[in-house]
Structure formats: C-alpha cells, structure tokens
Design brief:
The protein has strands at about 5-10, 15-20, 25-30, 30-40, 50-55, 75-80, 85-90, 95-110, 125, 130-135. The protein is mostly beta strands. It has a single domain (about 5-135), classed as Immunoglobulin-like, CATH 2.60.40.2550. It is globular. The mean pLDDT is about 90.
Length: about 140
C-alpha cells in the first residue's frame, strides 16, 4: 500500500513549491494509495489540494472511486490545520503489464475550491508519477 507524503513548502529563493516523498512510487493494481498532505503555507495561500491523473496519456489512470459513478481521475480536499489526506486505489490495466500514471498535485488559495466548472490558477503545483503494475 503506497503512502505518498506531500509537502507544501516555501523557500526564500524557490518560492512556494511541492515536494513528494518518495519522488517516484509503484503500486500493484488494487493497492490502496494514500496521499498525506502537510502544508507550511498560510491557509490563505493553500486551502485546497487536488490530485488529477493524466488520462490522455494513461486512460486507465482512474484512482478515485466515484460516489455513484465509475472511478474518476480527479479528487480534492480541504487542508485543515496544515494537514489532510486523499485515498485512492490503483486501477487494473486489463492485462499483465505496467504503465506510467502521470498526475498533477495542485494547491489553491482560500475561496478557490477546485470543483467541476470552476477554473482557478493553482498557487503551487507538482507533476509526479506512479508506476502501475498489473501482474
């Protein structure tokens, strides 16, 4: 079960940035994946976080269960007290194989919840990958 630590940080030279540990993650189909977010930014700068997979590059990269629909490639939550978590499940690939599931982590300021239909500019973002293996 991969646990991905996501640090939302500020550096006097680099400015706001996101760092993930580990930098690259592997998961077998069906594995639970947990993103643990830790933000040191002022809540006015980073209140919401989202994870969105690139389904154009990897169509099967739908990690998040839909409420009353098939799994989806995007999920978000609110940072409270500097912390929050998102949960997903590594998807099946349909045949024994491996795939590189590229995704984007974005943080948004207060009042800019990343709900469908709204387009906000993230205050900070990062583009890590997960390697999915379907044995």
């Amino acid at each position: 079960m991969p646990d991905i630590e996501v640090f939302i940080l500020n550096d006097p030279v680099k400015g706001n940035y996101i760092q993930t540990e580990p930098e690259l993650t592997g998961a077998h189909s069906g594995d639970d994946v947990t993103w643990h977010f830790h933000s040191l930014l002022d809540p006015k700068i980073a209140t919401w976080v989202e994870v969105e997979f690139d389904t154009k590059a990897t169509p099967s990269a739908v990690f998040f269960p839909g409420r009353s629909s098939p799994p989806v490639a995007r999920c978000w939550t609110q940072i409270k007290g500097g912390h929050c978590m998102l949960y997903g499940t590594a998807p099946g690939l349909g045949a024994p194989s491996a795939a590189n599931a590229a995704y984007c982590i974005r943080a948004y300021k207060y009042g800019e919840e990343p709900v469908p239909g709204h387009t906000f500019t993230p205050t900070v973002k990062e583009d890590p990958n997960i390697i999915i293996c379907d044995p």
